[in-house]
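Entry 14. Ran structure prediction on the chain below.
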Amino acid sequence: MNASAEHHNKKDKTQEEIERLNDVQILLDEADDVPVPISVYEDPIDLYLLSPSGALQDPGKLALAEKRLTKMGFKVKVDKAADARDLRFAGTDKQRAHAFSRAAKDSSTVVMATRGGYGISRILHQIDWKLLENNPKKYIGYSDFTAFNLALLAKTGLSSYTGPAAVSDFGNKKIDDLTAEIFVESMRGELEILSFESPGSDAVDARGTLWGGNLAMLASLVGTPYLPKIKNGILFFEDVGEHPYRVERMLTHLLHAGILQKQKAIVLGHITDYKLTENDNGYDMPHVIKWLKEQVNVPVVYGLPYGHGDVRVTLPIGKKVGVATEDGMAYLVLDEHDHADEPEYAHGSSGEQGHFHEGVHLHIHDEPKPSSKEKTGKKKKK
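Output, structure tokens:
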């Protein structure tokens, strides 16, 4: 390469970097124009961002997410390897495993993944679970992060959260107001009840450990020490880009492993972005669900606003919740207490609903019903 060509390439790279920085600034400026519908808190929560899965495609979005989260009442700290890259991953396996150790040692109370993708399964055996057990945090992420959620519960007994990821949900020009609001209230322990439209769901009124997440990640952990053994639980799942027969195959795997039939309820989130072919001959997701209901005598609840769609509610994995349906609506009562000395769930002899939370009973007839335009509702703790 001659000197002139080398100089020209350096100039091009400099110009590309200037344009990238300009794009980042435009995103940050536009973020100022997008109101974040969150109450102003005087006590910011320390939040630690790490990248345990796929590499960030645009580091500028990380800066935008950090700014947004700050406005939402968090004091944000970014892991030193959050924008690292090794092949398709956010750094080497060792870097990403050590990020969890750095987060555990940090004073932050919330640890949030920047995005999903793929990669956590590769490092489950490298994570220092004892360190995490001795330094409990509120971990949150979704999709690939399901592997961590379930492994944390299996290895330490600690609960965690599935919900938004920093860059995926708060690093774009627009954010979903409800996703942001529910996330903040969940991290502050203010969210008590989630309600959502659920036409066609089975009748259910039960209490159990909430667990699940991305179906592909859940199924991949069967037979490993990283899948918690949950009986009488409330299992929920979602997935994206998986053909109905693949979803059915994963559910068959859970069925033959004896997992599905041990649950008190199965709650379906979003199953999106798949393509049918002529060979399917009418076979679609409703046929999968019909088949599922024929295999297990477990109530199935539809419509959970969770997955890879626009709205992604925050859910606690490993905590006791109540679930009930009536008149085309479903209700999740989020219980912050384990009630280890109480039965899983019991109906009152007088016909009253079971006790879910201290001072809170689920009286479905008394719950305000969302309007026809409102897909998801929530109720704060008083």
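The two ends are 70 Å apart (CA to CA). Will compare against last week's run tomorrow.
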